[in-house]
Amino acid sequence: MNNVDNPINLVYYLGREQYGSAPLIYGPHFAAEYKDDDGDGMIDMKTGEMKYVKGKDRYIATGRDREPLYQSSDMQLFPRVWDRSNDQNHAQFYADWLSLEQNRDPNTGQVVSYGAPSYADNINWFFSYQTDFLFMRYFMWNYAGRQNDLQGRGNKRDGNWISGIGLIDTPRLGDQSKMPESLKENKAHNTLFMLPIILGILGLVFQLFRNKNDFIVTFILFFFMGEALVLYLNAPGPMPRERDYVFVGAMYVFAIWIGLSVLAFVRLALEKTDKDLFKKVLIYGATFTFLVTIISSLTGSGSGAIMASLAAAVLFVVVVAAVTYIIKAVSSNGTNFKMAGITASVLCLLVPVLMAQQEWNDHDRSQKTVAPDLAKDYLESCAPNAILFTFGDNDTYPLWYAQEVEGIRKDIRIINTSLLGIDWYINQLRYKINDAPGVDVIWTPEQIEGANRQYIRIGQTQQMQNLDANAFYPLYDIMKDYLGQKVTDEDGNDVGPNTMPFSKFFVPVDKQLVIKNGTVTPTDSVLSQLAFEIPASAVTRDQLMMLNIIATNKWQRPIYFTAPYGQLGFGQHLRKDGLTYRLVPVVTKNPEQNWVTDQAMKAMRMGGSSIKANNLNAMSENLKKFEFGGANKKGVYFDETNRQSLLNIRAIFAEAAGNLADAGKTEEAIKLLNKEAAGIDPENLPYGMTSYFSQHNQTGIMLAEAYYKAGQLDKARKVAEGVRKDINSQKNYYSSLKTEKPNYYASMENESIINEIMGEVLNAVEQQYDPLKKAAKNPAQEITPEALLKAADSVGITVADSTK
């Protein structure tokens, strides 16, 4: 976010000021009330140091740091439950995790406020979420085993640590043999039987007894690379993805103790005079193993955690004693030092061999090219000389790589909206980069210096109270003449307006131009002007820049978005050309009424699929250029994040093919489906697989419907069979969990319901298109006494014997 070309920006950069800060020792909790001592309705603010940015010939003051003050009663020591923002669902996650009070609006049902967390809640969050669920769960992934690669959310199905030993796993998570098959077959399903943990704890205890000074140094390093980071980062809630790499330093330190286990075994086997050492190692080691296991099991039931921890402690004693006696026996009762060393080395080496055998396939990235291929697919979804708006870092970096390193589509101007509010980045847009011309942003560099035009409120001003509330105003004129007018502060600096009375705008359309340059198709009903209303009460500089670029472009260059951007009110004018969404002077209509998948999802209140308005000709041509990230190569592993990207590609092929078939272009539809089938091996990306909110299976059902639409019955049935297999496998798992571990089932109830809905959606698709399913659907056969009784039981109606 910082252009580090001057000392002040360097300080801001090194201080990571763009990320804000979290309270560590004393601060407000997440439901704290703002302070307003004088009762004027204005929040009391704490003023900090002045901030500066580099101007043309001087440093410009942008204002002092200001932070809101909170009621003293809402300030706490050691505030762990602190983030009041719900942008990333943090506040809601706090409330759900800690069972805090949630006050809802009686009309809408929306949460309007939360109950204050107690000190006990802060301690609970620190241990159960920050220490256990983050640090210790990641630690156990490496040295005990991993359940699967789904992002953990606190339930018993996704991303937990396991050992592969029933006595340890079942009390904590339920019977793992009954997990959905797609998760048991997941390459990140790693069972290490806690052997690396046992070796590490043995090395730790041995170092403690043999060299306390070395132990203190090593332990301090482990602490500061692990638990100290937990304290300092004060994690607020769910992250966009797993953050296990944060604690990699602690994992390295534990590996030192694993290495010392070889020496420990040799010494234990050769010790003849110090019999107490062996006993101490077993007692202390078992105790440490118990503590590590129970600290890693705080999110489960207390009895389950204790049972698992006791089993782990016993396992430590058994393994260490057995290996020690084997080494002693092989080394002639501890007299042959060389043989003891060789035996200990060989036995201990079996553990990293096991780790490699279990974990290599889900760590090998040598054949996986999802990021650059997906970037190419985005770029190839754009017409020549396009402007492409992207959102965030992970959305943008692969695109930059594709252009700068591989030289792909250097005619496209990529604009990262996350940087679009910063003056130095805006000024870069004015110049040509690669083969992409510069962009007119209307305002001069001086007009966007410092805090100028950084935040504009929308509302009637005193001078313009008589404006027609229903009128639409020319976007270019408002941006240039109204927001571009010179407004000075008390020091004579141009700060620009901070309020505008306009929220409705239009962009004129040259119909001949948009038809000639391919912005619209000849069959489109082209608007004479693109009119839209901003639905917010304010706009930020990045949004203003986006509006400026749209206004000045005047339909000369294609404008695309990597996501269906609707925050500024023109979402109904976006149309897919592939993975990207093009701004068009047309009121788009989504073809979801032609898709049983979409209609069934909406009927069951599950929203809809990703099917949006599209340009069939452009999509069909663009998809021919798509790459698949190595998914066509046998045995390549794709983790959950990669699978989501591949599912987006699979979905766009299914959508395009289905719509082509609806338009009577069956041959073109089949070609696209064949390309997808050749590009994505079902062994790498199954048609059906357990995922969060059944997103994976939704895409599979959509692909099956596309095959049905194209008349490919056998292939449609194959896809449907794969999806149904996973749906049934999930159903069996949820049923067993509900019966055997009802308290664990509670966190999976929503997933169970969604899975049932997916089954109904798949049924609806098959009954619509498949002749075999239509023939089987005989109402006269379905309405039987047994069927009626089953239906009555499902809704809780008790039927008397006489009625039966």
How do the helices and strands line up, and which of them pair or pack?
Layout: H1 7-14, E1 26-28, E2 45-54, E3 59-68, E4 75-77, H2 90-98, E5 102-104, E6 111-114, H3 119-143, E7 145-146, H4 166-173, H5 181-184, E8 190-191, H6 195-210, H7 212-225, H8 227-233, H9 248-270, H10 275-295, H11 302-330, H12 337-359, H13 370-379, E9 387-390, H14 397-404, E10 413-416, H15 423-428, E11 455-458, E12 473-474, H16 475-482, E13 499-500, E14 504-508, H17 511-516, E15 529-533, E16 538-540, H18 541-553, E17 559-561, E18 574-576, E19 581-583, H19 596-603, H20 616-623, H21 640-662, H22 666-679, H23 695-709, H24 713-740, H25 742-745, H26 749-769, H27 771-776, H28 779-782, H29 785-794
Parallel strand pairs: 9-10, 9-17, 11-13, 12-14
Antiparallel strand pairs: 1-4, 2-3, 5-6, 7-8, 11-16, 14-15, 17-19, 18-19
